[in-house]
């Protein structure tokens, strides 16, 4: 564990679900949740951490769900990518209100509101101390924002992929259903895949395994947890070799 005030990771990619922005609502964006999250991201940024974000769009639209009721999957996935852009702009607005330079980089070209994702430009933004928000997934249908997070983490040379969830780690069963579920403080990539644990999709886990990128799964609802993970406190679950 890192000493108090020190940093275990200096360049991180944080994966947020779209649902994390809903708060207690059933749809859309809760402004208070975005404000609280932005305060925490600002405190992490102040430590000198280079921070990249990938946010999902499930609070607005899910391509998989649309496909299940008869919509073309490709069209649905493109709509989901646009939903991630809406969430990204909401986060950018709050971060910039706190005086933090932020760039939204989109896998789909929408130049009026976001820069196109260019790997070297993304890294340069991080080196200049800007928070980057990577929108529109991979830009391809059939790939989730989890897969996009793993891919972008590799591309920007992040030291860790932080997966923010509603539970305090990885369990062998749903802890909300089974109170006797066992939490794994540390687990191997292959075991996650073999057990079919719902951490991230198999594509994302496999990509991290092939490139030896550790994943930390933790509870985003606990104030200060992002900072604690980055400073090396043993919270959540680690997926690694």
Summarize the model shown.
The protein has 241 residues and is of the alpha/beta class. The chain is 37% helix and 19% strand.
Describe this entry's structure for a reader.
By secondary structure, the protein is an alpha/beta fold. The protein has one domain: 3-Layer(aba) Sandwich (Carbamate kinase). 37% of the residues lie in helices and 19% in strands. The chain contains eight helices and eleven strands. It has helices spanning 31-46, 63-68, 73-97, 119-127, 145-155, 189-195, 202-210, 225-230, and strands spanning 11-16, 50-55, 102-106, 115-116, 131-135, 160-165, 170-171, 183-184, 186-188, 215-219, 237-240. A nine-stranded mixed sheet has the order 4-3-5-2-1-6-10-11-9, with helices on both faces. Strand 1 (11-16), helix 1 (31-46) and strand 2 (50-55) form a beta-alpha-beta unit. The protein is globular.
The number of domains: 1
Q: What is the tally of beta strands?
A: 11
Give the ordered list of helices and strands: EHEHHEEHEHEEEEHHEHE
Shape: globular
Number of helices: 8
Give the strand order, joined by hyphens, for the main sheet. 4-3-5-2-1-6-10-11-9
How much of the sequence lies in strands comes to 15-25%
CATH hierarchy class name: Alpha Beta
Main β-sheet: number of strands, strand sense, barrel status? 9 strands, mixed
The SS-based structural class is alpha/beta
**Separation of the first and last Cα atoms:** 18 Å
Q: From the alpha-carbon coordinates, what is the Rg to the nearest angstrom?
A: 17 Å
